[in-house]
């Protein structure tokens, strides 16, 4: 066996193996292989933000552990990697970096700027994925901004259009006035902000009386289409059906009854505007009220706002409040805390606008989503309710069109003459309707020959929500069903409502089949202050900083050990440091083993002593526990068991207790020494096998230096996963071993408390074993106790006695004399 060097340079080793593994091509999926079972991972194509952050580290570590584990279990693992390029985030960043708005330059120029930025960001993130040691098959890399990917997104749209799932309609949608686009419910974040409640008098028609209305949005007064009260509210029920005058614009509207009005909020009288909030949308539909749109797409008041036209929302609010006050109609104002919806890309408050949009009928699938969610394995199990609750909470269908530039074009034209919708044929895609005409001579309805292209693009989730089928090879490979549904879909808890949900509805609609068989959820990364990690909270730690300082195998231990799967994981430097210390401990132990096994002859006769059997049995039990934990994606249990066993049982207890037998074969016999060598060889090998999915680099280095020549597998990563050999567990030996270890540990503890070095000799020790059974076990293993603790004279008595009690077995006590 080769000697492991003294120096342990984690960073150097990690770089070396990342490069070698790639050269060896060990992560390539083998499509021609029909023997091994396939395990396919629906790797998230990350949105290129330009940074591989600690949340990504957590996410990728989880499923890379699974990928490596499954490979060792003999699966043909498919681990693709793509990049989800389109979207608002990139456009917003391009606008910021170039100090322009998208409408100021031609769309193709703007798109080029976006592509350039995305390429830069992808390069940065790819480096992060590689440095984390992720076992990605890079031959599968793809970008959703490439026309070849558009083809798939457009094809899936056409199929769903023909199946009746896609429709165009004028419905109120969430609108970001800064980004000037529709956004889906899932893209709206909710924030607590301070607002002002204005108490405004609305005069009744034909009278001197008025009703008081409390509103936080007086700027919507010009869009008021009704005033509502709760019909059960005695204060106001007599007003139902009467007319009331909207101040400022002096229009008359009706007072309508609506049981959704909360009598305890404000004054119990509310104005219904188009649209102040989602409640207004419901009320307008229910009572068939007219719609007065007063906002433009960039968040200004339009001509329907009369004298306020051209003002921004906040300018209009100020002006209207002033005018109401001047008219003597403002009774009072008060501050309130309110929850408002903001755009998740730019934090601008979201408005509700009506505009022609494309939708996918998602709500008709809700029962199916629930049924399918129940058929899928969730890690952890309780996460499935998040998906089901979200699906059940949706008020609107999914708005899939976006008024942006950087997105997959919607393959649609409209007849200029009659408005007929012309959908691209499946064989036309990829196609950009803005650059190409439909490949037909004339409109099928009116024979018109001129067409206008759809200028909107798809929501970026339209690209990524077919990943399970695309990864499998749809629509090009005939055998794509071999890899579909994906075996594992990994997702952050924050994108269950988007990614996990959209994947589900799209694949159910397209193929009437679930997209994935299991779903692995990771929580959020918290800062050391317990709040969500974010740059604005100043608790942010950059992933490269962590990887540079302690290396990948330490960072991966942090991710695996940080908490139960699915729970939020705090980032704490001491946790990564601990991971690094563990690696050093493992390295030193392995180096020790390599120095003791230089002359190891595996074929030689060996004799196992009690402590050898004890630790071998424990290694088998560990194998069982780690295997069970990895099967259930309980990474924290796997790594904690491994670290405890390696650090405390193998290094601190076993190795310390057998050093004497190793060093003095003349005293204990060559066969006994060989027994220790066999045990060291076997247990260390088992440890690195079990650790290989979590800390792949250090284990590979140890394997290649010490074991590869002997075992012959070209990499530990493809070596078979160990099966726990339960026959090797000798319960009797384990119990006895435990007792002997307890005695040794207590004597060493006493030494430490007396501030003596662990190899300090002890003149005499008298052990009171408490009973004859214990006495005989201790006597049989006297040599290990004497040798480990450097005792010159050991006396063992079977009776109970005084002195220091052994913590783990309090019946036993001892008196020592230095
Ligand atoms: Zn926005
Ligand atoms: Zn026509």
Could you please describe the fold and organization of this structure?
It is built from 23 helices and 29 strands. Strands 6-5-14-16 form a 4-stranded antiparallel beta sheet. Strands 10-11-9-12 form a 4-stranded mixed beta sheet, with helices on one face. Strands 27-26-29-28 form a 4-stranded mixed beta sheet, with helices on one face. Strand 28 (804-805) and strand 29 (813-817) form a beta hairpin. The chain is elongated, with a radius of gyration of 35 Å. Bound molecules: zinc ion (2 copies). One zinc ion is lined by residues 176, 178-179, 343, 345-346, 348. One zinc ion (ZN) is lined by residues 176, 178-179, 343, 345-346, 348.
In short:
The protein has 818 residues and is α/β, with parallel strands linked by helices. The protein is built from 23 helices and 29 strands. The longest helix has 29 residues, at 635-663.
